[in-house]
Amino acid sequence: MKKNLLTAIWMTIATTILLGIVYPLTVTVIAQMFFHDKANGQLIEQDGQVIGSRIIGQPFTSAGYFHSRPSAAGTGYDAANSSPSNLGPTNQKLIDRVKNDVAALQAENPGVPVPIDLVTSSGSGLDPDISPAAAYFQAPRIVRQRHMSDEQVRQLIAAHTEQRQLGILGEPRVNVLELNLALDRAAGK
Amino acid sequence: MTANGWFQILLFLLLVFLVTKPLGIFMARVFSKERTFLDPVLRPIERLLYRVTGVDEEHEMPWTEYAIAMLLFSVVSMLLLYLMQRVQGLLPFNPQKFAAVTPAHVAFNTAASFTTNTNWQAYAGEATMSYFTQMAGLAYHNFISAAVGIALAIAFIRGIARRQMKTIGNFWVDLVRCCLWVLLPFCIVGALFLVSQGVVQNLRPYDTAKLLEPQHIQQAGADGKPVVNTVADQTIAQGPVASQEIIKEFGTNGGGFFNANSAHPFENPTPLTNLFEMFCIFAISAGLTYTLGRMTGSQRHGWAVWAAMAILFVVGVTAAYWAEARGNPLLAGVNQHASTLQAGGNMEGKDVRFGIANSALWATVTTDTSCGAVNSAHDSFTPLGGLVPLANMMLSETVFGGVGSGMYGVLIYVVLAVFIAGLMVGRTPEYLGKKIEAYDVKMAMLVTLVFPLVILGFSSVSVVKDFGTSSIANPGPHGLSEILYAYTEGAGNNGSAFGGLTVNTLWYDTTIGITMLVGRFLMIIPMLAIAGSLAQKKYVPPSLGTFPVTTPLFSVLLIGVILIVGALTFFPALSLGPILEHLLMLAGKTF
Q: Which one of A61, A81, A92 has the shortest CB-CB distance to B215?
């Protein structure tokens, strides 16, 4: 008993050093050497200022940008407070939230059912993507606001549609931040 | 449901099938102290560890000493984790200057949670824990709680394999060899693969990004009147995530670095990381079925157990995928149909890159095992979709199961299955040449009774008292599901959640903490007692009357026992929760 207790104490200390300190620091050093950009969150810089991460969503509300999905992270897309809504399927709060969002979206695109991902919040609250369906749904608004041709906007969406990884995995998606940055670039031309 | 969705699910199962044999052989070699290709590097480290900690690697332990060593190690390491949280403000690697974890019951709950391989989280990682606590406290426990589980499963298997012996191995040796050979090398390679896909790994302070479009958000001010606040920045949480992410899955731990767990793009950025992480969750537990066959000399028995597990897995994922792909009938004006342009279905709480198939698959995988990592919000699943993870855990996580704990969990059911088969033909039951007698069956029953006792006991108190019901986020039958889920995951050491329930209260932190400790240690002790009892028995050669444990008939019987024990215990509770909610949802009722 006493011998095993001493072993337990020493074992805790020794393995904490090995698995809790040496291992993660070793991985950090190697990761920083070989995958510097990926290991630091794929930050996007503009004029020396960090304007976001390629894989973390941002909120957009003005009519001239493609909108992201609703977010339950903090006040919306708070990347220091990731969270889903945790609303159950029969919760009136969920039904009402979706109803309001649907009403607002259908005002700009009458009669077209809204793609489901555009009115539901994601598991992280930081989803960087929308479905291609949700992007094309917003195209008419962008065309009106940005005075671009329908063709131009659709081409932009198609160019930023990421197909299934390796042709098989996951679902097709459109990165909203990158799409909006491209929209700004197209307007600046 | 789409053809591509099914293809992804079957591809996953194929990968699990392919890893079973090589990993199973490797583990059998490691724990039998046979040579492996890693010995030249790892043997010196192993010997050094034994010298420092005073372990005699030739010493063999009876089951009682094995249990005491395991308990002492768990207590000491749990205390260290508690202390670390309480003084993290004084420790290094804390760029966000997080103070000590308070109140004390959250720190207790977290220490219990990570020591028992549950990794239930009553806190939000990126807003609470310093990098030091994450690495040396939480990720460290991911390693050792997994290693303890695997060591126990190996001890049980030795109990079956050995004849007329009093000992079942050396706990310290099993622990160290598991960490060094099985977990650490794979984690180093796996973590770097995750980084290459975009999982972050750094020690930098959180970054601040200027939003492309600053947001004006209306909030209630101090005097209650609405105030418009402008949010111009986005704080992006960082950290040593990949090194923790890999052991979180490989050791079926499940405690996320971030609050959103594997739904967070920094934990699970691409569909490929998603597949890889799910594969890691199943790998060791699948491999252990082969280890079981190899160490007991009945390889076909190992595969018969594998097959029973695989069938239960397919049933679960089919139900979850079907329910989630159908979407939520209460939502109007939306398009929930799957097409080439969208995944459709019930997307609340799911990320676009995963869609329905990968979210339903993950939810099944994480609750078949005791992992509990999530890539979508289980609380927002449709009632039947959410029933699947809940029911999986209520089957004691025997479908591959937690690393080690799944193996000894299913072996308890195997003991019951051969006992019932023995009753049917009127013979003393035998299992791989060992007579199963009254003592063994009593211990097995103890394991199967403790589990529902804590779940149903605490749940029933919670639903009749204010301190229980005031935490419910989703009213109606869904509220019962939330409470049932919380105690089931605690007892099953799972750690996933119907996340709406507010659990960082004194009542839930304490009772779920107790549930986790009971679910781990009160299961382990009777299980080790059976192992010790089996090891002492004489070998009885199989005769005509022996029920073979290598046939499809055995797999079917095993599935039957698992389902019947689970259904008899939990069906009434389930019918008042998710099943009732499903019927009310179809009737158009909301809460």
A: A61
